[in-house]
Amino acid sequence: MEKSCNDQSLHLFLFYVWIQIVQGQDNEAEARHWRGIKAQLTLKNNQVLKGAIVQIDKKGVMFDPERQSPFYDPKAEFFPFNEVKEILTENGETLYGQTIRNKKNQSKPDSKLDYAKNATTIGILQGGSLIGFDHEIRLNPNFGLQFGAGLLGFAGAVNFHFQKTTNSNFLSLAYKNFGLGYVSFLGPEFGFRWFPNESWGVSFQLGFGFFLTRSDEFRQFWRDKFNDEKAPGVLTYSLGIVF
Fold it and tell me: Which residues span the domain enclosing 199?
């Protein structure tokens, strides 16, 4: 009788082990099925990521976002389902979640409102010039390098963005050289961007530039205009259209 009970316990144990092996094989097969599929991941904070699925299990999804700039390729990250709003394949198939979608609110693959992308601004007092341009290269979602030029001037800056999108507001440490040696300064600026749509937006920057160099002509202009040679710098601003 005791031997029969032991045999039965052994059979139950072996059956349990077999079930676990089969389930493990099924889970691995399911993981292989989803691996590498291009998809769009929408989080509950409305952040949208595009990339490829690494793995899906009962707890969440391992997702590898696509390269966001020539200098920044984010690593794969695990997102639990309680943080995920929707997962869509590149063909529009819903893998997880359900959202009412229409042409007006549907995100486009290259939307500047979803990603940190490079941007070019053309306008007044851009690029250290009366009229010029600034081009920003996003090194990663929060940091960018900016350079520009225009009519008799050039500029450069390091930008810190508050959000991981192209239309993010930012703080900037900017160098500007007006008039190719007429006057140059370095200082902080606050940058504001507003996009009425996904194609273009408005950019405005305001800050203060500390004098680095001043030509004799500029010194004379400053004396005649303000009768003050002790000013450490000047108010800086610019306005433009950003693409």
Answer: 119-242
